[in-house]
Write a structure and sequence with these properties.
The chain is an alpha/beta fold and 411 residues long. The chain has 2 domains: 61 residues, no CATH class; 297 residues, SGNH hydrolase (Rossmann fold), CATH 3.40.50. It contains 13 helices and 7 strands. The strands form 2 sheets. A 5-stranded parallel sheet has the order 2-1-3-4-5, with helices on both faces. Strands 6-7 form a two-stranded parallel ribbon. Strand 1, helix 5 and strand 2 form a beta-alpha-beta unit.
Length: 411
């Protein structure tokens, strides 16, 4: 969708509604149905002005910024540029340009390497994956290629644009790649160049706090313009300490299976709602990577004494290096990067990691260089947990009714 100059004139003037393109009014009505005060399914100048005033009042006095916090970890509450409330992005957004223009913009920014990354369609069925993400996605991005190759594929085509915390969120990367809002006039279209000029099968994102569907539909609309068969996957992360309240627990005695069921359910329902909303517009296109369910199952298994070698829930509370989580924000503990990788693999390829024969040469855990951990026994349990989480989530797109470790054929 292109924003017309007349639309900008409309936004900041008292021009009559009759002078505004009907398509623009239609976009406003679609985005803000509550603005139709008289219920006639059409917007008048008065109704549009009233809606604009309402939006201004809602964000009055709230500065917008994409800058990450200097301390205290990832912010759960953050202001968003008011441009996200508009029916379309600014006319100079890179996503409005042609594929050739987008590639040329990025080409001028890089010192080495191609502006467009592409992979030939793998004959063995490997998926060509492009994605954004942050430190919660990094473990899975690290482990997935190793798992895919161990499963018999020649390679795992993967190209990402990531960042730490909020800078790796889908919203932030969309603004940054397009050169809009806080990045106005400073585009970095790393993924946009490759999406529009090469072939891809899958796009993945990491979640963030207080998400809106449009943070993802923006990417989806752009990708489907060039990749009509593409599918999209959003990880739902996992339970975090903040869900227990403002006070950090003094010991791990607080943690019970019931506690993990509660906070795991909160994560599941929140991101399931987001996916369901997106699936209304993109049926059978958008899916969950159920890492939250996997970590919830792992935590409950630990409490039952079923994770050999694991010594604690969270290192920052219990002080044990071999814990499921290692800090207050909720980064994964050593060895659990492979659980996230197994969830990614099982969801994307519809195959249980349990079917992979033998050990996978992961090498040392990125966060713990210690030989012999995780053990083979623990690794096999993580494979089982990953498959259980994937087939157990109704939005993963994977079912296994006959229990053969392979996704059921579409009905």
């Amino acid at each position: 969708m292109k924003r017309l100059a007349l639309f900008l004139l409309f936004c900041f003037s008292t021009a009559a509604a009759d002078d505004t393109p009907a398509a623009t009014l239609s976009k406003w009505l679609e985005k803000f149905p509550e603005a139709d005060l008289d219920g006639d399914r059409a917007l008048s100048e008065k109704e549009v002005k009233a809606q604009k005033e309402k939006l201004r009042n809602e964000r009055k006095g709230t500065p917008h910024t994409n800058k990450p916090p200097t301390a205290g970890g990832a912010p759960r509450e953050y202001p968003v540029d008011p441009g996200w409330d508009e029916p379309d992005f600014p006319e100079h957004a890179v996503s409005h340009r042609s594929p050739e223009e987008i590639a040329e913009i990025y080409k001028k920014q890089i010192k080495k390497g191609p502006a467009v990354v592409s992979f030939e369609k793998p004959a063995d069925g490997a998926l060509r994956i492009i994605g954004t993400g942050h430190s919660f996605m990094a473990p899975g991005y690290w482990a997935l290629p190793k798992i895919t190759v161990a499963a018999g594929f020649a390679e795992q085509p993967l190209y990402t644009h990531t960042g730490g915390g909020i800078t790796g969120s889908a919203r932030y990367k969309w603004e940054q790649e397009n050169g809009i809002f806080e990045f106005d006039g400073k585009p970095k279209p790393k993924l946009l160049a490759s999406i529009s000029n090469a072939e891809w099968d899958v796009m993945m994102w990491g979640p963030y706090f207080n998400e809106r569907p449009e943070y993802y539909s923006s990417w989806i609309d752009f990708a489907l313009r060039y990749q009509p068969e593409m599918k999209f996957y959003l990880s739902d992360a996992w339970p975090q300490l903040y869900q227990l309240g403002d006070e950090r627990p003094d010991s791990e005695n607080l943690f019970t299976e019931k506690i993990f069921e509660r906070i795991g359910k909160e994560k599941r329902e929140g991101y399931s709602g987001l996916i369901e909303t997106l699936r209304e517009s993109y049926p059978e296109r958008v899916f969950i990577l159920p890492t939250s369910d996997a970590m919830t199952l792992a935590a409950k298994a630990y409490l039952r004494g079923e994770l050999p070698g694991v010594e604690g829930i969270n290192r920052i509370i219990g002080g044990k290096e071999r814990s499921l989580w290692r800090d207050e924000l909720g980064h994964l503990g050593p060895g659990f990067e492979r659980l996230e990788g197994y969830v990614f693999f099982a969801t994307l390829y519809g195959q249980s990691p349990e079917k992979i024969e033998g050990d996978i040469p992961f090498g040392a855990s990125p966060k713990m260089n210690q030989a012999g951990y995780p053990t083979e026994q623990l690794d096999r349990i993580l494979r089982r947990i990953a498959w259980e989480a994937v087939v157990g989530h109704r939005l993963s797109g994977v079912t296994d009714k006959n229990g053969d470790g392979l996704a059921d054929a579409p009905e």
